[in-house]
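[09:14] KT: can someone run the structure on this one? pasting the chain below
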Amino acid sequence: MSPSFTAEYMAVRSCAQKIAQEPALANTDDIDILDKTLSGSTHSGQTCAHFLYQEAAMALSRFICQTRPSELRTRARHILDTFTTRATGTSGLAAAQALGSLPLVLNPPPSPRPDFKPIQATDLSTLLNQAGLQNPQCTQAGRSLLFSDQKVPDQVLVLKTAHTDEQVAGLAHEAWWMEYLRANLHLLPDQHIPRPLNGRCRIDLQAMHIPSSAPMSSQETVSLPYITRPEYFTYALSPDAKSNHAYPEFERILARAAYGLGRLSRHGLVHKAPIPLFHNRVQSARRDDHGQYIWTRGGRLDRWLSSCLYPNFGLSGLRDFEHLEPWSGYPRHLFRNLGSQIMSLILATGSWFRLKDPQLIGLTSQGEPVDARHLFDRSLFGNLLKTIVQKFSAGFVGKSLSGTLGSEKIVNPLIEALGMDRHMTEVFRTQDQLKNDPKSFRDLLRAKALDPGQVDRLMPGEQDIVLITGPHLGEFNSRISVPELINFTASVSGSCIAQAYFQDLPAA
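[09:31] RB: done, structure tokens below
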């Protein structure tokens, strides 16, 4: 750490302490020091630079919170706004995080009681009668059985099944939130909310004589029966190119999802998984964070393209309400939650272009990364990014943010990262292999190993093995390959929180 860096850090630290202890005594000189620090590029290449920028930006944020309206407070906000909207570099990320830490007041709903209703045994005929279905046909979607009747074309009976304790608890949460949202329809206007039938129930699938078109395992299981519309199972994205939506319809689906996510979050109800985001799936069992992606750390993003298949939003709006959670009350959690939603929407948009040719993925026969950049339309991509920003902010703030927060600047970096499969591998560590029996271990290696020839001579836990599981965004255990996505996500999240915070302040 250079002497000049230390001197500047100490000066910033002194300003921060002054603002924390006696904010009314802070003056123009103090704000100038903080502004100069964020503006300077002398130390941007140093490893500890982010600590310097975070200290300066958070000092400005605290000054805004702890002082009355004044020209100096307006200037402090302008400084943070300026660096946030640039959406570039460590200083921009620090400014966005500082705006995202403003103490916005939300009123989250109560947490659901996991066992709010006992699990009752029932039979299929009872449920079909309740749904008004007389001659039902059965199909399967994931772990849900769908019963439809041509005489009732706008209604589907769904049995969402659970086979583990975690899934059973998830059904209880989903039923709770369905009932809550149906009682508060203003939270998701113009979006369809399914109607649960009497909470969870125990069903004997073997006695139901499920047809072969729905190959569900024949065993007694816990299910959540609910009634919904057919379009509830029309997803935004599908691995079948012919099933994917044309641009105008996809934009409408994206806009509805962005608005709904923003609006729910503004009311303290956070959807934690628009798409599943992971840093390392393969290490999920032994990581404190279960391998889930914490985007503010800027790490590599695991299997981004496969994560986008069947997102939790579609033609009818948001879905899979078991992933809803009341806001924790911590500003930094809100900033991170909003960012995860925004990033999910952006990645889903990128996958919409890739799914024009789902087979164009991975490595060529020569081991080179597949180049799918020609599938992207820069103009349409830019328009969809603007849609995300405008609709998400409209849902969260009540009106769209002015400007695009530099969305046009990240189109090319996103196409470079999402359009070329440069990062296809991950390392299967010995300690992770021990979770597999020899058969499942070899099945995995035959499907995914970079060198299938080593399969028959290996046992779990002998050595690290390279698997082909991508595309990922970044090398295994490294940084994300498109840092512009992190900065832009932070910019949108921080700007939304700041706009809502100032909007809620009483008039001077």
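[09:33] KT: thanks! The first strand starts at residue 120 and ends at 121.
[09:34] RB: yep, looked fine to me
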